[in-house]
Amino acid sequence: MDHLELVIRNAVAVTAGDIQRCDIGVADGRIVALGRDLPHAAQEIDAAGRYVMPGGVDGHCHLDQPMPPPMKMADDFESGTRSAACGGTTTVIPFAAQAKGQSLVAAVDDYHRRAEGRACIDYAFHMIVSDPTPTVLRDELPRLIRDGYTSFKVYMTYDDLKLSDREILDVLEVARRDGAMVMVHAENADCIAWLSERLVESGRSAPRYHAASRPAPVEREATHRAITFAELLDVPILIVHVSGGEAIEQIRWAQGRGLSIYAETCPQYLFLTADDLDVDGFHGAKCVCSPPPRDVANQQKVWDGLVNGTFHVFSSDHAPFRYDDPRGKRLGGAEPAFPHIPNGIPGLETRLPLLFSHGVGTGRIDLQQFVALTSTNPARMYGLYPRKGTIAIGADADLVIWDDKHELKLSNAQLHHNVDYTPYEGIRLTAWPAVTLSRGEVVWDEGGYRGVAGRGQFIKCGLPAPARPRPKDFTWRTALGL
Ligand code: DUC
Ligand code: ZN
Ligand code: ZN
Q1: Which helix (H) or strand (E) holds 34?
Q2: How confident is the model at residue 4 (pLDDT cuts 50, 70, 90)?
C-alpha cells in the first residue's frame, strides 16, 4: 500500500452505486485505499459514522463571464470557487462564452486568463457558441473538443447569444460527429420579445412581469423544438434549467421514444415561485432568472422529475449579480424595467445543502440519488468521471463529510460569495458540509474557509459518457451520411 498522507476514519462512504463503512486513505491527492483499520497517517480525520460523499460537481455556473458594460458578474473564480467549496462543491464547470464576431479559441484563451491563479478548487470549461461561423464549425470547435472542451451551450433566446434553428443544426452536426455534449437553453426568443414589448407598453414593467414575459408554453415550445433537432441528427442533448411540468412532459415524451434527451434542473425551481418576484418594492429583482420560477404545482413536478429519473443533473446555474448595484440588478437606474434586469441568481454554495436538507432529509430522494444528481452524473456527462464524481481507488480525493444534524436558518451573512443577497434567505436547513476536501486538502471545515486561491487546477474533459455509436436507421440520416 502507498504511504498514506491522510486517513478519513469511520466513514459511511456513499457513492451513486453503494454505501459502505470504511476508512479512506489518501496519497498525492488521490484515494489509494478503502477498507477497515487502515494504517496510521500523518493526518487523520475522524468522520465518526458520518456520511462521506464525493465532492459536488456543479455542471452549470457562471463566473466572471464577460458582460456588456457596465453589467458585471459579482463572482470571479476566486469568490465563486470559495463559495462553492464552503457548500461542498469541489469541481465547477463555468462557461467560456464566445461573443458574436469573436473567435471561439480567443474566448477560451480569455477565460483561462480570468481563471488563472484564482480558483481554490478544480475547474473545467464548457463553451458558449454564439457565432458558429464556417471557421468555428470546421476548425475551432473540432480542435477545442479534441483539446478537452467537450461540451458547449447553445441559446435559443437572448439577442447577443441566440442561434437560429439552422445554426443549431450546424452545431449539433459537429457534436454528433465528434462526440461532444450540447446543452440547450430552451426558450422561444420571439415570443419573449413580443410579450415583453406588450407588457412594457402597457406599463407592466415591474420585476414580477419578468415571469409573465416567459410563461411555460414559451419554454415548452423551445424544448420540443430542441428535441426535434436532436432527433433529426440522432445526437444526445441536455436541456438545462428545466423549470416545470410543461417542459418536463416534452422531455419524458422524448425519453419514452428512446431519444437520448438529458435534463437538468436547479434549486430555483424547487424553492422559489413567481410570487417571489411579486414582492414590495424592487426586491423581486433578486429572483429574476430565466426560465423564471413557476408555481407550487410546478415545484412538485420538478421534485417528481428528480425522484423518477427524468432529471440527470442538479446544478446551481449560479449567475451572480449584486442587488444594490448599478452593475447588477439596478442596471441603468434604481428600478429598471424588467427586460433590463440582469438575469440570474446566486446558488453555488446553497445547492447541495438545499437538496440534502429538503430532498434527502425529507425522504424524497435517497443518498445515492443525491450523489448521482449532484456529482456522479455531471462528472459522467462532461467526461470527468471517474477522476471526479466518485469514491474509488485512483479518484481524486474530493470529498465531503456531511453534518446531517446541522439545523440552521439560511442567511446571506454566512455565505462566501460576493453577492449582497441570497434568494433563499430564511429557508431552514438540516444539513451542511462539516468538511470539504479538494485533492486531499481541507478547503472548508466548521471553523471556516481553509482554501487558497490558485490551488485549483484546470481539468480537461474527456468525451461525455452518453456518447455512443450512432445507428444508421432512418432515411434522412442515411441520406445525410450520418
Ligand atoms: N439564465 C440564463 O440563461 N443564464 C444565466 C442565468 C439565467 O437566469
Ligand atoms: Zn441558460
Ligand atoms: Zn446558466
Answers
A1: strand 30-35
A2: very high
> What letter represents residue 240's amino acid?
V
Question: Read out DSSP for 381-416?
Answer: HTT-TTTSSS--TTSB--EEEEETT--EE--GGG--
What's the 338 CA to ligand 3 centre distance in angstroms? 18
**Residue 73 Cβ contacting ligand 1 at under 6 Å:** no
Query: Nearest C-alpha to atom 6 of ligand 1 is from which residue?
Result: 344
Q: What is the pLDDT of residues 11-54, one digit of tens each?
A: 999 999 999 999 999 999 999 999 999 999 999 999 998 999 99
Please name which of 217, 201, 189 lies closest in space to residue 337, comparing C-alpha atoms: 201
Tell me how far apart the alpha carbons of residues 357 and 424 are, in angstroms, rounded to a whole number. 13
Which cell goes with 186? 430552451
* Whether residue 185 has its Cβ less than 6 Å from ligand 1: yes
Q: Is 210 in the pocket of ligand 1 (CB under 6 A)?
A: no
CA distances from 58 to 13, 122, 155, 315 (A): 20, 11, 20, 5
**Is the pLDDT reported for residue 294 higher than 70?**
yes
Can you name the CATH fold of 1-468?
TIM Barrel (3.20.20)
Q: Are the C-beta atoms of 327 and 71 separated by less than 8 Å?
A: yes
Atom of ligand 1 nearest to the CA of 240: 3
Whole-angstrom distance, CA of residue 134 vs CA of residue 446: 52
Q: Where are the alpha helices (DSSP H) in 15-124?
A: 77-86, 104-115
Out of 153, 155, 317, mutate this one to test ligand 1's pocket (max ligand atoms within 8 Å of CB): namely 317
Among 105-114, 419-428, 448-457, 465-474, the least confident range: 465-474
